[in-house]
Design a protein that fits this description.
Keywords: Membrane, Transmembrane, Transmembrane helix
Pfam families: DUF3188 (PF11384)
Radius of gyration: 16 Å
Protein name: DUF3188 domain-containing protein
Number of strands: 0
Largest sheet: none
InterPro entries: DUF3188 (IPR021524)
Shape: elongated
Helix content: over 70%
Order of helices and strands: HHH
Number of domains: 1
Number of helices: 3
Oligomer: single chain
Amino acid sequence: MLHEFWATAPKSYKILVFTAMGLIAVGLILNIAGNVTANQGLMIASLPVIGLGLVLHMAGLVVRGQRVRKNIPK
C-alpha cells in the first residue's frame, strides 16, 4: 500500500513531505550546533523550525488520509 500510494501521490504531497523532513533535519542540526557551541540563542531558534516541520508532517498525514479515503471503493 505504501509503495503504491507513493507512486501515485500528487507532487504537492511529495513536496510537503520532503519540506517537513528538511525542516526537521535543519532544526536538529541547528539545535546540535547550538548545544556544542553553548549558544542558547541558536538552541531556542531551532525549536520553531522543528515545530514547523512537525506541523507540515501532520498536514501531510491529513492529506494522505483524505486521499486514501477518497480512493477506497464503496
